[in-house]
Design brief:
The complex is a heterodimer of chains A (179) and B (418). In chain A, strand 7 and strand 8 form a beta hairpin. The longest helix of chain A has 15 residues. Chain A has one domain. Chain A is an alpha+beta fold and 179 residues long. Chain B has 418 residues and is α+β, with helices and mostly antiparallel strands. Chain B has 2 domains: 176 residues, no CATH class; 216 residues, no CATH class. Helices cover 53% and strands 17% of the residues of chain B. In chain B, strands 1, 3, 4, 7, 8, 9, 10, 11, 12, 16 and 17 form an 11-stranded mixed β-sheet that branches. A two-stranded antiparallel sheet of chain B has the order 2-15. In chain B, strand 5 and strand 6 form a beta hairpin. In chain B, helix 2 packs across helix 12, helix 10 runs antiparallel to helix 12 and helix 12 packs antiparallel against helix 14. Chain B is elongated. The chains are: A alpha+beta (179), B alpha+beta (418). Chains A and B meet through helix 1, strand 1, strand 2 and strand 8 of A and helix 3, helix 9 and helix 10 of B. Chain A: Keywords: Signal.
Chain lengths: 179, 418
């Protein structure tokens, strides 16, 4: 009896199981997909956004042409506006801190060894917001799909005072609610 | 008057009517049952863990970790080292942590090795604390706390001596009978898997396995209960641990740190998000189940309409006589509609009674086997909407035989056939 219930559940787990690889650790990197994390505590909201570079600029190597350089600058400029990433239905918030790391601008990244190529590059953005009353934030929408056609799906995970939740956004559904 | 006539007329055709009532009852049972179990399972799962920010275990699927660490469903693929636990539990952003060590059982109930922090920091439902119904938390190595259901089923009181079994088989052959535990406390019922477990200290788990190797007791090297206390009872590994943070702001960064930890393959999951992802995954399945039960119910209501329509032929004379003694054609229309509604309502009553009985008899099994706590009252505002919908569908499907009664009663029934 028990297995009837377990087998469908456990087979679901198979889809989500990362493999064991210490010291040869590789982060997942799926083109078209991106992650958006939101933490709300008291009146502080923290937003983290992480995406493969290809979703925003269409390539993952260092820009080789002026057109590519322009794409990169455009993407970085858009990311600077938190309203592109998320906008809240209610609640007055202002950005207190923005930190954006483009795919090619960390100087401390070690040069790839000879013969090895760095195959993937990503955008990371974090925003801290200070809100009048963060508890009124009801639904949240994103405009990422409008500005960057490279996105297929964005996985949102949020943590608030009442609990945790997640939503999967695509270009048809760009709104989710935080209860 | 028409109602009386309708009931008498149905009574006259007991057998077909009973079968129709039963088929509607099955449809109602299925629809309400699926709806009830689906919503109850969700709320039962969601209220099991509250206020835990992260659950950390050996790297595996998030769902798998959640199921074995909180719901005691399935088993861990790997343990994690005590050292890693210490390292993460002492981080400044961590407010509290609860270690969990699984793998032993007591008469079919899971034994959970943990620390006293469990009783203090573990919450369920709407951030409710665990409460002792009697006794106190374990203190010594050979002390145990039992869940409400365990105490009730096995009739335990504080002071009871119990023996833990190695592994989780209901009939365990390898018993830790040389090191009995004393029940020191009984938890109040929570309606969560906590009720179904026995809690001991991590040192207790370590002590009973001190003279074991490779899953069996080492012959000729048995260490008595008293002697075991002289050994170092710090565990080498645990199954998982739960974490509460000082500030949720650090949640995602701590999770990333755990997931990218290079010394050991760990995974940290956020229980609320994992549950929500589970619902998203099983959502399609739920919809299919619901669709099937709606279709089954629709088919039974079609059967009702068919049954009434078929009976029109044999009741031609009855209808004609009713008209002849002065009944209006409209009355015959209502007679058939009322018959249909009486059958449907009886079907609904039988179906929901059967559902209540079924829930009542299986709920113990459900909570023991699956950690699912299902209430026995299947009625919610939503189910009443469903029931009204059923009545409306049955009314409209019964229009066909009713209109036929309205139209044909006089003409065809009184014609003398040769």
């Amino acid at each position: 009896m028990k297995s009837r219930f377990l087998i469908p559940l456990l087979s679901l787990c198979l889809f989500s199981g990362p493999s064991l690889a210490e010291n040869r650790h590789h982060d997942a990197h799926t083109h078209g997909a991106a992650e958006l994390n939101i933490v709300i505590e008291n009146d502080t909201v923290l937003i983290e956004f992480e995406s493969p570079a290809v979703n925003l600029i269409g390539f993952e190597h260092k820009p080789r042409t002026d057109a590519q350089q322009l794409e990169l600058q455009k993407a970085l400029a858009l990311l600077n506006d938190v309203e592109i990433i998320v906008s809240f239905e209610k609640g007055e918030c202002r950005v207190t801190e923005t930190h954006i790391r483009g795919p090619f601008d960390n100087a401390d990244q070690e040069e790839p060894e000879h013969g090895k190529r760095e195959e993937h590059s990503e955008f990371h953005a974090t925003y801290s917001l200070s809100c009048q009353d963060a508890s009124v934030i009801g639904s949240v929408s994103t405009r990422l799909f409008d500005h960057f056609p490279g996105f297929e799906a964005i996985r949102v995970r949020w943590v608030g005072s009442k609990g945790q939740g997640s939503a999967l956004l695509n270009n048809q559904s760009t709104i989710f609610s935080i209860e | 008057m028409i109602l009386k006539l309708a009931i008498a007329s149905l009574w006259n055709r007991k057998l077909t009517v009973t079968l129709t009532v039963l088929s509607i009852a099955v449809g109602v049972f299925l629809l309400l049952g699926v709806e009830h179990i689906r919503s109850e399972a969700k709320s039962s799962f969601s209220k099991t863990v509250s206020g835990v920010d992260l659950i950390v275990g050996a790297r595996t699927g998030p769902l798998n970790l959640l199921l074995y660490s909180v719901f005691h469903i399935g088993n861990a693929s790997n343990n994690i080292s005590w050292q890693s636990y210490r390292e993460f539990s002492q981080k400044p952003e961590v407010a509290w942590s609860i270690p969990i060590s699984l793998g032993d059982s007591h008469k079919g109930y899971r034994v959970v090795g943990t620390s006293r922090d469990f009783f203090e920091h573990f919450h369920y439902g709407q951030k409710q604390n665990l409460v002792f119904r009697s006794g106190r938390a374990f203190d010594g190595v050979y002390e145990a706390v039992v869940g409400a259901q365990v105490a009730k089923t096995l009739d335990y009181q504080p002071g009871q001596s119990i023996t833990l079994a190695h592994g989780i088989a209901k009939v365990g052959f390898s018993k830790h009978d040389d090191k009995p535990f004393i029940v020191t406390g009984i938890l109040a019922p929570t309606g969560t898997p906590v009720d179904q477990a026995v809690y001991v200290s991590l040192a207790g788990i370590e002590a009973i396995h001190i003279d074991w190797q490779g899953g069996v007791r080492i012959l000729g090297r048995s260490i008595g209960a008293e002697d075991a206390l002289k050994h170092d009872l710090t565990p080498k590994s645990i199954t998982a641990f739960m974490v509460g943070l000082n500030s949720k702001i650090s949640l995602f960064s701590l999770q990333r740190e755990i997931n990218n930890y290079r010394d050991e393959a760990l995974v940290g999951i956020m229980p609320g998000i994992t549950l929500m992802e589970l619902w998203q995954m099983v959502g399609a399945l739920e919809n299919i189940l619901q669709l099937i039960s709606i279709l089954v119910l629709f088919a039974t209501l079609m059967g009702l309409s068919t049954m009434l329509l078929a009976s029109m032929k044999e009741r031609e004379r009855e209808m004609a006589v009713l008209r002849a003694i002065g009944a209006h054609a409209g009355s015959l229309f209502f007679l058939i509609e009322i018959e249909a509604l009486v059958i449907t309502i009886t079907g609904i009553l039988v179906g929901s009674t059967a559902l209540c009985i079924a829930l009542l008899t299986t709920r113990a099994e459900l909570s023991e086997q699956y950690g699912l706590f299902i209430g026995i009252n299947p009625f919610t505002p939503l189910t009443f909407q469903y029931l009204l919908g059923i009545l409306a569908v049955s009314f409209s499907l019964a229009l066909l035989p009713s209109i036929s009664a309205y139209r044909n009663s006089l003409g065809s029934g009184l014609v003398v056939r040769t």
